[in-house]
Write a structure and sequence with these properties.
CATH class of chain A: Mainly Alpha
Structural class of chain B: alpha/beta
CATH superfamily of chain A: MetI-like
CATH class of the largest domain in chain B: Alpha Beta
Protein name (chain B): Tungstate transport system substrate-binding protein
Strand content of chain B: 15-25%
CATH architecture of the largest domain in chain B: 3-Layer(aba) Sandwich
Largest sheet of chain A: none
Pfam families (chain B): PBP_like_2
Oligomer: heterodimer
Helix content of chain B: 40-55%
InterPro entries (chain B): ABC-Tungstate_binding, PBP_domain
Number of strands of chain B: 12
Number of helices of chain B: 11
Organism (chain B): Halomonas shengliensis
Structural class of chain A: mainly alpha
Keywords (chain B): Signal
Chain lengths: 234, 278
């Protein structure tokens, strides 16, 4: 098919042409997904660590629920946030529907379970390893959370990247709560859906290649940071 | 180590919060600075490029930005019912009149029309190209049990298609009748992939860039007429909406200037929408 060969040329044109529309879409994609991941990280890491350290009735059920939510279909997350933010919904007064803020909220819902569930597992393993030392230092469990998170930081970078991958790849949630409005809530993935529906497959695939490149750049940055700190630790 | 941890955590916290604040600030930037309305409309108007052609003219004149959420007609009604759009531009006259009767809309007006066309594989296995009427064409497809791709998404096009089957006295079903539950573009993509017949609005078809083996096989029957209407939403039900701005958009669409803009829009030299406001 001609569109396959055309896609790379289109992607190259898009990048080299520095089309202002495309730049806007790329900037919004990064802003929405990075903000969502930052919020989910702030909440998810301590939450995951707390789940690893505390045992309470129903602990197992919470862990299973969190793990199950990692598979939450984006379109379902989007629908729930839509019903919440719609004028007829409980938070309708805020008027957030069809804004980038609504997209951030939807992506936090998607990313938070991934970061919390994976962080719980990492911290739990580390805690098993160092339990006696930590107890002999007389640290309370609340104090252990930052210590363990810091010690697990290299692994947690991968956890956060998994969350970012989810956020930047999903289309179902941002399509519903953002509305794919040109110049306001159009991001890379919704633009790809739009161009596919117009039958402009080379442009759609070209946009896909650009998106993949962006995600690769973010991952490369995280890798470099990880390697540097690993070397410093010896 | 503790000291460092706290610094790192604080740094992450500040970074996250500032990013969230920035996202919010940029997102609501134009809410403070500019006037805008949210318009729920159909994929056919958006995908064909009509809005890109006419909205800038309206914005230049009035300073009002129009933010288009392009979905199927069924979903557009639902968005408007919930109070999430300031205005509607859709193509399901019966549904639009019901919307007004139910008290959600206060006014409905004809804006423009185009027509539906029947697309099919170049070989035309059911032989519909020579049919006299669209009813006959659909009957031929059903008799031949040739694959037919239906939107199946409760959109304006889908509703029109179901009415045409009914008028043709055929109850579509069986292996050959495939309900895709997708928008017009995705349905054309799929139909191209499985060499199926499909009914499309002319605008989406003309602007569609991946026809593969598909061709326009049947057109011109009056039953294929496709009317678009603009609706204003009840102030009583949804007092928070921007009724004044929506009214300006509605009136502009019906004005000589708006009608001219619609008529002037062409793709590949073809006029796609015909203004017919009274």
């Amino acid at each position: 098919m001609a569109s396959d060969a055309g896609a790379f040329a289109t992607a190259l044109d898009l990048i080299l042409g520095l089309d202002p529309d495309l730049l806007g879409i790329v900037a919004l994609s990064l802003r929405v997904s990075l903000t969502a991941v930052a919020i989910a990280t702030l909440v998810g890491l301590p939450l995951g660590a707390a789940l690893a350290l505390w045992r309470f009735p129903g602990h197992g059920a919470v862990v299973v629920a969190l793990n199950a939510l990692m598979g939450l279909p984006p379109v379902v997350a989007g629908l729930c946030v839509y019903l919440l933010l719609s004028r007829a919904g409980p938070l309708g007064e805020l008027g957030l529907l069809f804004t980038p803020t609504a997209m951030v909220v939807a992506q936090v819902v998607l990313v938070l379970p991934i970061i919390a569930a994976l962080a719980r597992q990492q911290v739990e393993e580390l805690h098993h390893e160092y339990r006696e030392q930590l107890t002999s230092l007389g640290l309370s469990r609340l104090r252990m959370i930052p210590t363990l998170l810091w010690d697990a930081r290299l692994g947690l970078v991968t956890v956060v990247l998994a969350g970012f991958g989810r956020a930047s790849a999903e289309v179902g949630a941002v399509m519903i709560v953002g509305g794919n409005i040109d110049g306001v809530t159009r991001v890379m993935t919704t633009a790809i859906v739009l161009e596919t529906s117009k039958g402009d497959l080379p442009l759609a695939l070209g946009l896909g290649i650009v998106l993949l490149g962006l995600v690769a750049l973010v991952n490369a940055g995280a890798y470099l940071v990880g390697e540097t700190s690993r070397r410093r630790l010896g | 180590m503790h000291h460092k941890t706290r610094i790192a955590l604080t740094a992450i916290g500040i970074l996250g919060l500032s990013m969230a604040a920035q996202a919010h600030a940029q997102g609501s930037e134009s809410e403070d600075g500019e006037k805008y309305i949210t318009l729920a409309s159909t994929t056919s108007t958006e995908n064909s490029g009509l809005f890109d052609a006419i909205i800038p003219q309206f914005t230049d004149k009035t300073g009002i930005e129009v933010r288009v959420v392009a979905v199927g007609t069924g979903q557009a009604f639902e968005i408007a019912r919930r109070g999430d759009a300031d205005s509607l531009l859709v193509h399901d006259t019966a549904g639009e009149e019901r919307f007004v009767e139910e008290g959600y809309g206060t006014e409905r007006a004809n804006v423009m029309y185009n027509d539906f066309v029947i697309i099919g594989p170049g070989g035309d296995p059911a032989g519909i190209a020579d049919a006299e009427t669209v009813a006959e064409a659909l009957q031929l497809i059903a008799e031949a049990e040739a694959p037919f791709a239906s939107r199946g998404d409760d959109s304006g096009t889908n509703r029109a298609e179901l009415r045409l089957w009914e008028a043709a006295g055929v109850e579509p079903g069986g292996e050959w009748y495939r309900e895709l539950g997708s928008g017009m573009g995705p349905t054309l993509n799929t139909a191209a992939g499985m060499d199926a017949y499909v009914m499309s609005d002319r605008a989406t078809w003309v602007a569609f860039e991946n026809p593969q083996n598909l061709e326009l096989l049947f057109e011109g029957d009056e039953a294929l007429f496709n009317q678009y209407g603009s609706l204003l939403i009840s102030e009583e039900r949804h007092p928070h909406l921007k009724h004044d701005l929506a009214e300006q958009w509605h009136q502009w669409l019906l004005s000589a200037e708006g009608q001219q803009a619609i008529g002037d829009f062409t793709v590949n030299g073809q006029q796609l929408f015909f203004p017919n406001a009274e």
